[in-house]
Amino acid sequence: MVITTTTSVENRQISSYEGIVFGEVITGINMLKDLGAGLRNVFGGRSKGYEEELLRAREEALQEMSQRAQAMGADAVVGVKMDYEVLGSDNGMLMVTCSGTAVKLS
């Protein structure tokens, strides 16, 4: 499955548009990662725990979108966009969404 932010796939022609597909992941950030991030906020540096959680959520959202496109019979997803939000009363949830157009290639 080709997944790209561009509107076309190099050296391939889009033969049909199958529809818009989405991938969504909402994940909680655990207390230990929050504690580590809080210390990084005070003393500086990168939050490895948050970065790992973001990477995992992004990969899961793309995988979910890809599976939905495959279920539609698509060969690729073009025009992919990603979005990130913080949710919850204490901002303890991370939402990663992606969307694109499922297409068949000739």
Automatic annotation (TrEMBL):
Signal peptide bounds: none
Biological source species: Enterococcus diestrammenae
HAMAP family, alphabetized: UPF0145 (MF_00338)
The family this protein is said to belong to: Belongs to the UPF0145 family.
UniProt xrefs under NCBIfam families: PRK01119.1
PANTHER family: UPF0145 PROTEIN YBJQ
Highest taxon listed in the record's lineage: Bacteria
The name this protein goes by in its record: UPF0145 protein BAU18_000709
Pfam families in the record: YbjQ_1
